[in-house]
């Protein structure tokens, strides 16, 4: 089966290049498997040239032509005249879909948040059992289920709307995120849920440490996504991750860290009594 190729088109003149448009080549969802290079029509003798193997120019003597690719790499094209003077140049980056941050949000971030909902639910149930009955703590972890669900809703809604925002980019072939993430089986939001990653706490202090580890892992993933989005110059996504998600999670990490320290101090000499007192005062 022909693989899906995502293409980031960077266009510019001979002295510089800048982000212009994002193009997806997806045989399963689109009949378009090429990207169009558009050059100047001032000089009739203009033609496209490239020294990069793996790129095929459909019609080199046409200022506007299509080009297809056989591998993932950066490809450089120049529109030159009869005297071999560069009139315009374009750089096309063909990348695998796994390199795109918006795809990793769907295939990595969403399943992780969904998994954490079940993990927090398990922690909540643990402290409603008769042998470890700490109801205020139990309600706290159940509230983490709702907060994580709300966070995941933000992410999912952003992903669902992303293909609309990219349609406003210059060019006629923006990425069809809806097609790739929702219409194709075994991709995107249909990624399998890992319900086996559940660590049983030794005590209440350890329970807060486990929850802290969950949040820290998500922040680490979000940081990776921010760096990836910056590389693709998707500053809309950078702003969303940096202002809508990361601050909320870092605040949660601070709360969990404080709870861990508090219960550790109270239960230092008598674990059972300390946890009981912590729960009585916990809100």
UniProtKB/TrEMBL annotation:
| Any GO molecular function | ferric iron binding
Q: Where is the signal peptide?
A: 1-16
Every Ferritin-like diiron domain range: 96-267
Gene3D superfamilies to which the protein is assigned, alphabetical = 1.20.1260.10
Q: What's in the keyword line of the UniProt record?
A: Signal
Entry keyword Manganese: no
Question: By its UniProt entry, which PROSITE patterns does this protein fall under?
Answer: FERRITIN_LIKE
The highest taxon in the source lineage is Eukaryota
Q: Do the record's keywords include Phosphoprotein?
A: no
- List the InterPro entries hit by this protein, alphabetically: Ferritin-like, Ferritin-like_diiron, Ferritin-like_SF, Ferritin_DPS_dom
Which SUPFAM superfamilies does the protein's record reference?
Ferritin-like
The record's Pfam families line, in alphabetical order, gives: Ferritin
Task: Please report the name of this protein according to its UniProt entry.
Answer: Uncharacterized protein LOC100185827
Q: Which organism is it from?
A: Phallusia mammillata
